[in-house]
Specification:
Elements lengths: L12 H15 L4 H21 L8 H11 L5 H17 L9 H14 L11 H9 L6 H15 L4 H6 L5 E3 L3 E6 L11 E6 L8 H12 L8 E3 L5 E4 L2 H13 L11 H13 L4 H8 L4 H11 L13
């Protein structure tokens, strides 16, 4: 995708401004993390081509076939797919046909997926009973403990991604008689920033109630505006916004304290824990998707299928 640029001498001042704005809009068409990943993917492909004597732009279909075969030795299918997308976009931007769309590349790619599989091994789900155990073990006599409890409970109940958790500002949260309403300005499935509202009802258990957890954190921290979840120094002083990486470390650390393997848990355990628990409780797929903001049901199915494995299982009740 490329914007055709006119010679500046032939454009009026107004058109020059429009051209500049259009370039900015084009640059913002993808999230920064995605653009960074694509740049790195293209650099790696380019260096591999130079090392092996191939032309990277335009690349022959055979070149790409050799490259993805090489990648399949060590990478997951999802990682290879992203690299293929980066290569395809670079070709299209330069005005060349994408080698990824040829029959040869498609055929080899299908074969690779059959061999290495497309199953993604993620972190374990933090089920509701696990969350209760984790939260109960967090000391509530220090600010960091109150913060961690609020972060875990709100992240779990809202099925939030770690980026969504750390982007939460006080101004994006409403406390109503029914619970919390979080306005997510931007998320993985809402890169245009249209905004999505997520409702978190009051919980029946005070320890895992999103509203009580939030109110306790606000009372202890004194925060009234800006970032909700912030760093604290060793003296308990409130600092700047938490990073997405911090969420992962908090989940791992809190899980380890109750005997869970920290290597099997991470930030996504909150989101997958909600999905798994809701599915096991019999919540309908559309209800879960409303909370998780999944755009496609197949993204949710891996959670539902896993928790339903023991439903009406033929090995049950036969005398084992």
């Amino acid at each position: 995708m490329e914007l055709k640029v006119q010679e500046e001498t032939s454009l009026s001042t107004e058109m020059l401004e429009l051209q500049k704005e259009a370039k900015n809009h084009l640059a913002n068409s993808k999230a920064e993390n995605t653009k960074r990943a694509y740049r790195n993917d293209w650099t790696q492909f380019s260096e591999w081509c130079k090392k092996n004597g191939f032309l990277e732009l335009p690349a022959d279909p055979e070149t790409l076939v050799y490259y993805i075969t090489f990648l399949a030795k060590t990478l997951k299918a999802s990682s290879i797919k992203r690299k293929m997308t980066a290569i395809s976009q670079r070709h299209e931007t330069a005005g060349h046909p994408s080698p990824t769309k040829t029959a040869l590349v498609k055929g080899v790619w299908d074969g690779i997926q059959r061999k290495i599989g497309i199953k993604e091994e993620g972190k374990d789900a933090l089920w509701l009973e696990d969350l209760r155990q984790v939260v109960q073990a967090i000391p509530q006599n220090k600010g960091i403990g109150v913060r961690n409890r609020a972060l875990l409970v709100i992240g779990w109940a809202g099925a939030l991604r770690r980026s969504e958790l750390v982007q939460l500002d006080i101004e994006n949260i409403s406390i109503t008689r029914d619970g919390l309403i979080l306005n997510l300005n931007k998320s993985k499935t809402d890169q245009k920033g249209e905004g999505q509202d997520v409702a978190l009802p009051y919980g029946s258990n005070p320890l895992t109630c999103p509203v009580r957890s939030l109110e306790d954190w606000l009372a202890v921290s004194g925060i009234s505006e800006g970032p909700l979840f912030r760093r604290l120094d060793r003296h308990g002083n409130i600092l700047g916004r938490l990073t997405p990486q911090s969420v992962r470390l908090i989940v791992k650390s809190c899980s380890e304290k109750v005997g869970l393997d920290p290597n099997r848990y991470g930030a996504h355990s909150l989101r997958s824990g909600f999905c798994s628990t809701a599915a096991k409780a019999g919540k309908a797929e559309h209800q879960i998707m409303k909370q998780t903001r999944h755009k496609r049901s197949d993204s949710l199915q891996r959670y539902i299928k896993k928790v339903s494995l023991f439903d009406d299982n033929a090995a049950s009740g036969i005398g084992l």
